[in-house]
Amino acid sequence: MKKKSPYVSKVYKLTGRKSPLSYMLSSRHSSRSPLLYFDEEKGINRPMRYARNQKSPFEDEQDGNAILEPIVFEDGMLLVQKENQVLQKFLHYHPANGSVFSEVNKEQDAIDELHEVENVLEAQVMAKELASNTQKMIQVCRVLLGNVVDNMTIPELKRDLLIYSKNNPEDFINTINDPMLQLQDDVYQFFKAGFLQKRNNDTEMDRSSTTKGWCKANNRIVKGSKRTFYRH
Fold first, then answer.
1. Please, what sign has the CA dihedral across residues 95, 101, 103, 108?
2. Residue 135, pLDDT above cutoff 50
């Protein structure tokens, strides 16, 4: 016989970065604020309602003596004791679960945090190694920092590259591994040397001042996988 899972207290948190002092979650279905759960087995939308004295979070399984209570997150958090199983079930089926709030999962949180830390570490190591290749470092800095790079010293570039890799590890790693990196820098050099010129609010480019033919760019000079080849 399958062993029944023990009842445990659960903690829920708001998913947004900002946590208000108090946030009231919708706790009953109404025409103005629909709160429905689609039952796959029955093929119907079932209205939900939280009532502490009921055994089910669904209205069609509740009696006429439902005592309604508000669901309030304090400082972005909500503790639901193991004795309040109906609220735990209600939050499990709530349509806002995963978007407005989520159950605190320490193991998953640790995995997510570990991934972030590893990304930062990897990006920092790559930035440190990149400092030994001045040409490529300048190419990467032009893409990430813009044309201010031409007025910066090598120590300044190394410093800003390390700071950027720490604050934006995924973007930094993707830039380093972007196969179009060399082409992006080439396009920048073409503009700097005057071989390419922009006009009409940067929506068109001219191959040179003497060469005929215009190339529509649609607000981009050349399209890459995630960014334009020229930042200004």
1. positive
2. yes
